[in-house]
Design brief:
about 220 residues, alpha+beta, 5-stranded mixed sheet, 5 strands, RadC_JAB
């Protein structure tokens, strides 16, 4: 059925205007992004087809450019547009957290880190610099690659924390495998960094590992 044949209450744009974005299904929201369907398939049907093929929004949004563009109704222009939307969303969340958030518990940073590290195929080590009220001053990726004593340098972490006038820090890194359990190397380097930062009176509040949609907190585990 052509979209124009549907009553206004069933058309995604009109429904969003009348009821707000939260009232729309994943397929309806994706349909607004896609804008047009294909011969024999209206835009909502195309959106639902893409969701069925990819299983989840996460899989669709984190597909490589080649994987994304190979799918029905998609192409380079849509890929570029999607990446811009995702980056804007990430920057919005970062700006809001920097303005409002107080990172005084593991739960207060889980959503933020999940968004920051979503879809990364390479392991990275990030530091969140906090002020004396545990508000986010800045986040920064300091190291790339497998996290161990050979690739994470305490001197560089201390230097960066002092440069950003941090009163406290939270470490975070991702496991692209999706398994968030800390390794022995994770525990060893965290202890080494904690000792180094104690010398300059900077508190290490936590080290959080992000694996897919799961996060593990060293603080909650009693490892810090």
């Amino acid at each position: 059925m052509q979209l124009t044949s549907l009553p206004n209450a069933q058309r995604p744009r009109e429904k969003l205007i009348e009821k707000g974005a939260k009232a729309l299904s994943d397929a309806e929201l994706l349909a607004i992004f896609l804008r047009t369907g294909l011969p024999g398939m209206n835009v909502i049907e195309l959106a639902q087809h893409l969701l069925n093929e990819n299983k989840t929004l996460h899989n669709l949004f984190n597909a490589s450019m080649d994987e994304f563009c190979s799918q029905k109704g998609l192409g380079t222009a849509k890929y570029v547009q999607l990446q811009a939307v995702l980056e804007l969303s990430q920057r919005y969340m970062q700006e809001r957290c920097q303005r409002d958030a107080v990172f005084n518990s593991p739960n207060s940073v889980y959503d933020y880190l999940t968004i920051q590290m979503r879809g990364l195929q390479q392991e990275v080590f990030m530091v969140l610099y906090l002020d004396s009220q545990n508000r986010l001053v800045k986040d920064e990726i300091l190291f790339y690659g497998t996290i161990n004593a050979a690739s994470v340098y305490p001197r560089e972490v201390v230097k960066a924390a002092l440069k950003n006038n941090a009163a406290a820090v939270i470490f975070a890194h991702n496991h692209p495998s999706g398994i968030a359990e800390p390794s022995q190397a994770d525990k060893l380097i965290t202890n080494k960094l904690q000792q180094a930062l104690q010398l300059v009176d900077i508190n290490v509040l936590d080290h959080i590992i992000v694996g897919g949609e799961t996060c593990v907190s060293f603080a909650e585990r009693g490892l810090i």
